[in-house]
Write a structure and sequence with these properties.
Layout: E1 3-4, H1 17-37, H2 45-52, H3 82-96, E2 100-101, H4 103-116, H5 131-137, H6 153-162, H7 175-186, H8 193-204, H9 222-233, H10 238-246, H11 252-267, H12 274-278, H13 283-297
Parallel strand pairs: 1-2
Helix pairs in contact: 1-11, 3-4, 3-13, 6-7, 6-11, 7-8, 8-9, 9-11, 10-11
Length: 308
Amino acid sequence: MASSGDSETASHNQPSPETMDRILATIYGQCIGDAIGLLTEFLSKSEAKLYYGKVAKELEYLHKQIVCDGHRSRWEEGDWTDDSDQMILIMRSLVDCGGKVDPVDFAKKLRTWIQKGFSELGDFAGLGLGATTSKVTSHPDYLKDPHEASTVAVSVAIATMLQGKHKDKKGKFKVKEIIQDAYTYASTCLETDTEKKDLMFYLQCDNIKDLKLDEADKIGYTYKSMGTGFWALKQDDFRKTITKIMMQGGDADSNACVGGALLGCKLGMSAFPEPWLTKLLHKDWLDNEIKKYFEMMKWERNEKSEEK
């Protein structure tokens, strides 16, 4: 979708309607998963079952009122959290930099967001910032070198699907081959066999219980969100998948937003429950952010691709 480096520029070729649909579904899927995941963020799995077990099959944003504690009350019904805000900051950075990836520009935007949030939405500061991100952005050299560590597996998987690779004769994605590509690229960031085996475990996990998403003192471990995303990629029902992630508790908004992005990219816009899409609190505002990105890329949005 964009390129990195001074000598490279973004491609402005109009993607196919199918690819446009997957791009939109990746963005909306993340925000939807984020907003649903907020309902159980920082709860244990047993607490999630206690509070939401009876409504899990028909879960909606309004069920946020079931547990409206000090944490959840900071967001309104249908709102997403810092996870999706940061995705939008990346999109804004690409717009401002003409499609080029500029880590320093993003770093500046992130720092401003931390201080002020999105003022046009009535924010007074960025809410929900994770401990790791907070520590990194507070470092004196943050604006000079903001990309010291990175995870590439999710990006590779999404890029692979947007490029239409690894499809069978029926046009369905071969998820195992996507995972292998993700591992091949991501493992180059690691040094030891133990680290690489750990990565492969989370990429290949078939049972969400094995991820232990509400594990004490480890809910923010980045592989848990990545593993959740790749578990979601193996599924075929968006509502059931995001609900199951949400019902695990832990860092549920982060886990569900990664799962929502990957599964959304795989299934497309038609997979979303209509209320989950239309009742996103700031959907019109998000639509405009996407519009500005598409205009920068000289892409035309195909509204028909979004019809259910």
